Amino acid sequence: MAEEAVTTLRAELGRFERVEEAFALLEVFLEVARPRLGTVVLDPVGLRLPAEVTDERALLEKLIDEIEQEPRGKGRVLERAFDMDDEQARWDYVRLAYSSNQATVWSRRQRTTFFEATLAPKATYWLPDSLKADYFSALTARGWAIPEDWTTAVPKRPKPWWKRGSR
Q1: In angstroms, rounded to a whole number, what is the distance separating the alpha carbons of residues 151 and 25?
Q2: Residue 144, SS3?
């Protein structure tokens, strides 16, 4: 069975006029994709609030401080999971994803990464065609502008599993 085509969409904070727009787009994505989602995690060590965050800065600094005060077991905690059925957990994840060394949204069975933010400046969505259509419809219905290069991005078929990792 051939895999569905996937579109790559860049989502760095610098692409948006306001950081809150990036947060809103991620929040809508998590709502739309929730039935397809598997693990939603981020690296809780060394969270750094991006300078672009303005509106919720004090609230997010408090959240980061609380996370950093949590007791840690032996060794480094590599990831912290968030329950997307919990509204507060979704809110926390959306705002912390861009503050983390790595934040990832996986599909069920972790076969596909749907979203990843790494080292604060980089963020990317990888959306199968059907999920992209649902996501874009939800963004339009909520009155959010879809970045122009997102609407013109060309979907590509993933490499067969035996060719992945080779160039």
Answers
A1: 14
A2: coil
Give the separation between CA 81 and CA 113, rounded to whole angstroms. Answer: 15
Q: Answer whether 124's CB lies under 8 Å from 8's CB.
A: yes
Lowest mean pLDDT among 21-25, 92-96, 158-162: 158-162
Residue 133 burial class via C-beta count within 10 angstroms: exposed 0-12, middle 13-18, buried 19 and up: exposed
In this structure, which amino acid lies at residue 73? G
The yes-or-no verdict on residue 146 having pLDDT over 70 is yes
* Closest among 81, 109, 97 to 29, alpha carbons compared: 97
Question: What pTM does this model have?
Answer: 0.86
| The token pair that represents 45 in the structure block | 């060590």
